[in-house]
Amino acid sequence: MKRLILALLACVSLAAGADDFDYRLVPQAVAPDVYVFVGKTEDFDTRNGGNIVNTGFIVAPQGVVVIDTGPSLRYGRQMREAIARVTDKPVLMAINTHHHPDHVLGNQAFSDVPVGSLAEVQRGIASEGNAFAENLFRMSGDWMAGTEVVVPTRTLQAGPLELGGRRLRVLALDGHTGADLALFDENSGVLFAGDLVFNHRAPTTPHARVARWLASLDTLEAMLAGGGVKVLVPGHGPVSRDAAPIRSTRDWLAWLSGSLRQAAAEGLDMNEVLARPLPERYRALPVAPAEYRRSVGHLLPGIEVEALEAGHVH
Ligand SMILES: [Zn+2]
Predict the structure, then answer these.
(1) Cα 152 to averaged position of ligand 1 atoms, centre (Å)
(2) Percent of the chain at pLDDT above 70?
(3) pTM reported for the whole predicted model
């Protein structure tokens, strides 16, 4: 009992370390006028307050374009304060790459400017945003205080996007979710890939369609091969200057779907699949065991149906 109490006290004091609720956001300059706030490669918890995501901003001649707004109102506000320490130009627009909560629940801090996204992302945030927010309140606690869902107000389409005197390009892709926007800054060669690309962190798959995702990775890798992309900003993990994070994301997805298909063909049940050890190369990958467990839950049922329909189970 005493040990339990001590363990509880240890948890309380760890959580108390975060009670100033300061995300300590420091922008990393990745190219002239382009900055990234690099989050931790962790799961949501009460210490990181959901700061597990990359967000960023571009200082255009007439104002600032924000890419993703983080997991909470507090994050969005602190992001805006950090931007104001870099430039006194006004924020012109915040863009959501996709509808997942760690990328959009800071929208409230930008509700005085247009928030842009692909059309399906607007629908996704409108229908699932509240459930996502409740989940983050559960996992991240008081960091989330006051956070409300704000649905994007501006629909973006694939193609050129001129904002504040800067030429950007919107790529409308999918596979991590039903609608994944990547944003390319023509001027600097920075590509914000959103959660189509994870770097040194296992990918999340709650809305994944793996074949589509792999096709989107091919599109992004072709862009890098074309030479115009100088900096690749993944949705999670360190910023890169080459295609390595695209390849490692593809490698994980190909392994995951291949091993689940094989398990379905062998008729293994979910517990047997969960009990399988991760391949050696993923043992040190942050959050890999947890993402593997979640991905089995997300993806195995659909793969089992496919296997049945294809007559692979005897
Ligand atoms: Zn994410």
Answers:
(1) 17
(2) 93
(3) 0.91
